[in-house]
């Protein structure tokens, strides 16, 4: 385990807790349309958390060796922490919670994949609904002015159904939609692969059982043939 991995393992839980706090404050601010001193306080706390995300990225960059490959692999993280346009995407930090959950749950590998998929879908749908509502609510010509509409849109988008009854009109909203569609396709692939693996394993187990039963029957037939041979030899003598 290199220095970056050690740091990520140590900072993973604190970063997830910060992301959860960010999510609660962000959800409160967006759904309740908080104004005045309360909104100012929420923004201050969220900006502090944002600063901690930037500090975490900086520490990982300093610890990384070699730096160039690490920098290229983590361009998306850099964009999330630096671009105000992508503020809602900072909530993707919560996906680290899924990894922690997968390590803590004492179930089979396939079970962990199912836990990961269900948790990731739930988080992506909720986070995307909040984020798109924040970016679309007051946009000219918006179709996503309520949390209910945003949640419906997120479900339709992540399943790649795409009814077209609701869609984002802002650039940020379309970026969120693109990421949600990609996430939906990836998670669908994971679930499909897991199901296929389960079917193949069950068929393989049944095949092995049949082979074992057939071998047993053949062995019994051979034993009976040997007994018959002995009887024939005894009768002829």
UniProtKB/TrEMBL annotation:
Name of the protein in question: Potassium channel family protein
GO cellular component, one term: voltage-gated potassium channel complex
InterPro entries according to UniProt: K_chnl_dom, VG_K_chnl, Volt_channel_dom_sf
Entries under SUPFAM superfamilies matching the protein: Voltage-gated potassium channels
Annotated transmembrane regions: 12-28, 40-63, 113-132, 144-163, 175-200
Any single GO BP term: action potential
Domain Potassium channel residue range list: 123-200
Organism: Arcanobacterium buesumense
Gene3D superfamilies (UniProt xref): 1.10.287.70, 1.20.5.110, Voltage-gated potassium channels. Chain C
Record-level Gene Ontology MF annotations: voltage-gated potassium channel activity
Keywords: Coiled coil, Ion channel, Ion transport, Membrane, Transmembrane, Transmembrane helix, Transport
Subcellular location: Membrane
Membrane topology: Multi-pass membrane protein
Keyword Ion transport: yes
